[in-house]
Amino acid sequence: xxxxxxxxxxxxxxxxxxxxxxxxxxxxxxxxxxxxxxxxxxxxxxxxxxxxxxxxxxxxxxxxxxxxxxxxxxxxxxxxxxxxxxxxxxxxxxxxxxxxxxxxxxxxxxxxxxxxxxxxxxxxxxxxxxxxxxxxxxxxxxxxxxxxxxxxxxxxxxxxxxxxxxxxxxxxxxxxxxxxxxxxxxxxxxxxxxxxxxxxxxxxxxxxxxxxxxxxxxxxxxxxxxxxxxxxxxxxxxxxxxxxxxxxxxxxxxxxxxxxxxx
Length: 263
Prior knowledge:
This protein is an alpha/beta fold. The protein is built from 12 helices and 6 strands. The strands form 2 sheets. It has a 4-stranded parallel sheet. The protein has a two-stranded antiparallel sheet with strand order 4-5. Helix 5 runs antiparallel to helix 6 and helix 6 runs antiparallel to helix 7.
């Protein structure tokens, strides 16, 4: 469907009003004519008009690159501040860990003293991860790496990538010690939220049920990933199978197709 910029919103209105079920539509438009703005407007309209958002509404925005992904996120968050906590930006694991540490440090006044900052984070970890022994050790190493040696990004990235696995193994060992069965993903999630709810703020993709809009690059959408509660999933299967009303906006599909087919 080839449309002019002033009719993009009308095209989206028409396409999303169809009741036939799953379908694929392509809007062809020259770069710079307002496609992103029209999609953001439509998402805002859907969220504001949905009578019951607890019906597991899921809207995907899948982009060809990080810059476009961030643009969608910030523009949508600015337009819909009341839904900010329901919009999830999928970042790399090191970026998630870095932003989590920054958020923790923003809650205290340590006068820009690196030693005090590290002491504060270590104290927070001790209080909030007391049952996750290996997680405590790794978080402290990551925090020290972040605060004192920020330039060594490779080391920070390697430590961050180990964190999800460490959380899962700690959780599993703790459950075994308490003789609790974690034989489903939901049981693991419930147990994790009970024992360490802060992990859902560190790795926000641990519990996707909290979000209505998921914004990510194409490789995140297509390829498998591991969560903090174990299992290898992909967002397509995990969310589309559990959502009653999934909607996918695939931006710059001609660029995205270079990553390979969606199986």
